[in-house]
Amino acid sequence: MQQFHIRRLREEDIPSLKTLLVELDTSHYEAEPNYYRSPEEMAQIREERNVFDCYLDGNMAAYIACSNRQVVGFISGIVRNITSLISPEKRVGFINELVVSDTHRNLGIGLSLMDKIESDLCSQDIEEIGLTVASFNHEGEDFYHKMGYRVMTKTMTKRVKD
Fold it and tell me: What pLDDT, on the 0 to 100 scale, is given for residue 117?
C-alpha cells in the first residue's frame, strides 16, 4: 500500500498544486463546459486574484497530501460569520476545494484531508461545516454523505441563452 502524509501547504508546493488543480478544473469543465470555466481560464483567474497567496497568508486553512515527495491531494477551508434572512446567525466553516489525483484515489487520502480540515475548522469555534459538490460528482456526493454531510439546499439552473 502506498504511504502518504498530510501537512500544511507551503510556498514551494504551489507549482505542484497548480498541476493538481488542473485535474480538478478539467473534470468540472469536461462534465459541464457551459457552466465551468476551462482549466486555462481557472489558472489565469487564480493568478489574477492571488489565490495562492490566500492559501499561505493564514486566512484560509490549506493542506496537501504527499506521497513519494509528490503532491497528490489538496484541501482548503475558511471560517465565516453567516448572516441570513432565513436562518440564525452562525459561525460556519467552509471547505473550498478537495482534490485527490486520479492515480491516488481510494487510498484514504480524501478522508485524511477531510479529517485534517474538519479538525482545523472546528478549532475555530464554528457551529457547522458546509461544502459544495457538483451535481455530476456522484462519487464525491457519496463520499460526503458517508462522512455525515447532508443536503440542505439545491441550486438549480436553466440555460436561457446559448
Answer: 98
